[in-house]
Amino acid sequence: MMNAIRIVLRKMRTAITKPSSIARFLRYAHHIHIAVETKDPEVFRISRWTYGDLNRVPVTELFDGIEDVDVTLIRAYDRELGTSVDLQEILVLSAIVRVTNPKRILEIGTYDGNTALNLAANSPADALITTVDLPPDWDGNLGLAVPDPLVNVTDRTKTGSQFRNTVHANKITQVFCDSAKMDWSKLPVPFDMVLIDGCHYYDYVKTDTQNAMKHLKEDGILIWHDYGMMEDVSRAVDETAREIEVKPIQGTRLAVGFMGRAPISRGG
After folding, report:
1. Are strands 255-258 and 245-248 parallel, antiparallel or unpaired?
2. Alpha-carbon distance 132 to 152, whole Å?
3. Chain centroid to CA 20: how far?
4. DSSP assignment of 248-263
5. Nearest by Cα to 102 from 189, 220, 208
6. CA–CA separation, 177 and 132 (whole Å)
7. Beta strand 216-224 with 255-258: parallel, antiparallel or unpaired?
8. Which residues contact 52 (CB under 8 A, 6 or more apart)?
9. Tens digits of pLDDT across the chain (268 residues)
10. 8 A C-beta contact, residue 127 and residue 120
11. How far is it, in rounded angstroms, from Cα 54 to Cα 99?
């Protein structure tokens, strides 16, 4: 719980300097207390989902017929909760793929490849998943200036390790590139679905979002990970909700944007 204490102290300092953060801090501290009492670290993890202005809704309200689909989950528990999407999130992502049948999917942020593997397993047989991450020999320089605490670069030796040498590997193309420097014209555009889970700094999320919106089909789906948990991600998503309809999904850190749909009112 030492990490939890450090986070509480940091949030306390923020609350003191930003009165608007006091209510969020009090809710956060309350959940920390519950986590200690229940001895369940999941309570603490979920209690961090305090950012963002949009209300979460059940995924069944967003995708007709999703309750009827079956999904395939591969290496369901082979994930790092601080880095990977969690089990509920990969279940939701897989179900969205099953019900929408996207043929061209882009993932920004490969890590160990578990998400790409499950997207491939649940997409149509002729689908292509393109997943982007920094190269194994990354030199430490990013295309955009990012404060050190938000340089969330994962272990370069693990990139794509879970989908390599599997029956689904032929559906997955690994692109090694800084997403801020990426030449989108060389990708199999337009995409039916884009998942943004790369650098969580605002400038990167905003840049990835703007590029994705330019290269999605008119009825395409844009999904962000870490909405509610990361302040910069939440800010970028909330801003995008002024341009298109965006709905965060209940029980997850996923937010879904629908191209071609008018924005909804704030908080709706």
Report:
1. antiparallel
2. 15
3. 26
4. EBTTSS-EEEETTSPP
5. 220
6. 6
7. antiparallel
8. 227, 228, 234, 237, 238, 248, 255
9. 455 555 555 555 555 555 556 666 666 666 666 666 667 878 778 878 989 999 999 999 999 999 999 999 999 999 988 889 999 999 999 999 999 999 999 999 999 999 999 999 999 999 999 999 999 999 999 999 999 988 989 999 999 999 999 999 999 999 999 999 999 999 999 999 999 999 999 999 999 999 999 999 999 999 999 999 999 999 999 999 999 999 999 999 999 999 999 997 654 4
10. yes
11. 24
Question: Three-state SS for 215?
Answer: coil
Burial (Cβ within 10 Å: 0-12, 13-18, ≥19) of residue 23: exposed
What does each C-alpha distance from 224 to 30, 81, 258 come to in angstroms?
27, 17, 12
CB-based contacts of 256, cutoff 8 Å, min separation 6: 62, 96, 221, 222, 223, 246, 247, 248, 249
- CA dihedral (213, 254, 262, 63) in degrees, to 10, reads 110
Structure letter (DSSP) for residue 80: -
| 3-class DSSP string for 105-139 | EEEECCCCCHHHHHHHHHCCCCCEEEEEECCCCCC
The tokens for 231 are: 């302040």
